Amino acid sequence: MTVACTDFLDKKPDIKLVIPKTLHDADLLLNDYGTLNSNYPTFGEIGTDDYYLTKQRWDAISNYDQRMAYTWSDEPYIDAMQWQRPYKVVYIANQVITILSKLPQQGNQEVDYRRAWGAAHFYRAFAFHQLTELYCPAYQKTTGTKELGIPIRLDPGVDEKSHRATLEQTFAQIIGDYKTAVRFLPLIEPVKSRPHKASAYAALARVYLYMGDFEQAYSYADSCIQLKPDLLDFNKLNVNGNNPMTRFNVEVLFPALATGATPMAATTALIDTILYASYSDGDLRKRAFFKPNSNPVDSRYYKGSYDQSNTLFFGITTSEVYLIKAEAATRLGKLADARGTINMLLQSRWDKNSSYVSISESDGDRLLQLILDERRKELVFRGRRWSDLKRLNLEPRFQTTLKRVVGDKSYALPPNDLRYAYRISETVLELSGIQQNER
């Protein structure tokens, strides 16, 4: 028996047997939830104003890069995972696209082929956009051809030297990939972790809102809602429970989870007191999203992840799409449409035992501010605040100076500061030779 085992182990496998090359292989690659739907960058969320840390909590953070990210300290970063994990998603997506490009589209597997082709382009675009929001300046059409974007890797080869595209080229690739996803993804996706057509419409709405193209943001948000209008009724949730939102609930269009980060941990991050006070007592989100904490006295933790766990949810939901449509409609002068959209969302969040007073604001500027306030309250700890700060800082009326106090030291991040484009890890720079962000 020992000899037989030794003989078996000595035999070298045929390398051709382990190279993915079939539609089934491509489908298996797309089922890697741990890679494709998880571990997206948290540095942006670490830098937001939705929470605070006491000095004791800040001192207890062992990861030096995460401590520096909290205070926007512009020092070299070592942690390469924030960069590498999304590019692993890109690598797998490119593997799938390469496999499928060598296979026929016709035949009895055409439906599965189209589904996989669309999903691969969606995942690649999602990863590219996550990287762009963290490592690039806010998009402006007038400067997009001059600003640095990210390396656009479109094949699974690892030997090709990386170069940063322009920000304009980066967004063109993201939009192109998402539009391919819209064309090929099915209306109904049986695997809950995978994207479908409404997911791609929502993703395009998210990207166009970030770019300030409100016509396109409105159009794609509306298309998504036409296909997937579902909203959670918070009256049917156990809002006092530890994890009120169930995983893959009716609002989830695409599930994506953040990588772990100590500053954002469930029993570390303390909710900003002004933000918490902005929720009305009849707003069930006040109980569904937060739980009380006694140290410090009268502080709050976050508990509202759509993953039904302590992992932060950075995916896309219908609630976000309603907010995109409402904001875009307001900016386009469609005030009645905007009011109807935001009221539909808020009614689903309101305690049935407390009368909901519909938003009836007729002044466009005031209505826009109301909608932006609701956007922050709805999407707290959802990976949206950092990108919202960046895009809104381009408008003087919405500019925000972020401030931190850690012990006897104060820190500030002014609007449009270069630090809104995080430094790329020195490890990544050494390995790739790409250009660091301007400082």
From TrEMBL:
Tagged with keyword Signal? yes
Domain RagB/SusD as annotated: residue spans? 318-394
The UniProt record lists the SusD-like N-terminal domain at: 7-209
Its domain of life reads: Bacteria
Q: Which PROSITE patterns match?
A: TPR, TPR_REGION
Q: Which UniProt keywords apply?
A: Cell outer membrane, Membrane, Signal, TPR repeat
Localisation per UniProt entry? Cell outer membrane
Repeat TPR: residue ranges? 198-231
Broad class of where this protein is predominantly found:
membrane
Q: Which GO terms describe its cellular component?
A: cell outer membrane
UniProt KW Signal keyword = yes
Q: Which family does it belong to?
A: Belongs to the SusD family.
Q: What is this protein called?
A: Uncharacterized protein
The organism encoding this protein is Sphingobacterium paucimobilis HER1398
Phylogenetic lineage: Bacteria, Pseudomonadati, Bacteroidota, Sphingobacteriia, Sphingobacteriales
